[in-house]
Amino acid sequence: MRTKPWPAITLLIAAPLLMNLAFTGLGVSFDYPDVLQLPATEALAKFRGEQTTVVALFTLLAAAACAFAPLAVLVGGLDDAPTMRWAVRVGIAAAIVQTVGLLRWPLLVPWLADRVATEGPGSPAIGTFETANTVLGTVIGETAGYTLTALWTVLVVRALRDRVPRWFAVLGYLGAAAVATGVLVPLGVEAAGLTNFLGYLLWSGWLLAFAALLIRYPVRPSLVASQGS
Prior knowledge:
The protein is an all-alpha fold. It has ten helices and no strands. Helix 2 crosses helix 6 and helix 7 packs antiparallel against helix 8. It is elongated and about 60 Å long. The two termini are 25 Å apart.
């Protein structure tokens, strides 16, 4: 008797829900990500004003990002093609870089915010905050994270392309392409911020659709193409 891959299904549902819940909460409580456009002193003052909530939400967001490492391994168990084996590696890397980028908020920023509050506008902690945002945030967490997330999605769709409905593959490709536009944000392409945001919504829908397919069909989605297209 075949069983359904409930661990993979659980993470496919929980990870995007937690991610979107935390991101929405940060937007309401911290005006994130727009707060990053403020001068460092203002951003840190805003952080201190809502520190408990912001730290909790960034911790939740980091946990959701970290969950994509075991998710990549579990999804990798659905197929033994070389493409899927590469997808596992890329998915784990995506989880690592995004988790590292997000954890600066609960681990580093509280200390920096306290220093600036004590030392004033001339504190060297301001420079550290700006550097952390550039290196850990923009370069590692965002640029590398967007690229690897999009690549993982494409590799998974490619590995399962003969086993899933066409609409599922198209949704995955569209979500991946839109997420990848986030790498253009640091280059000053204003529209990229919106397309990246919409891409993550599409991508979240793709993950939930993936879970639905695995719930409906056998442990390996080998019958999805013939029954669901």
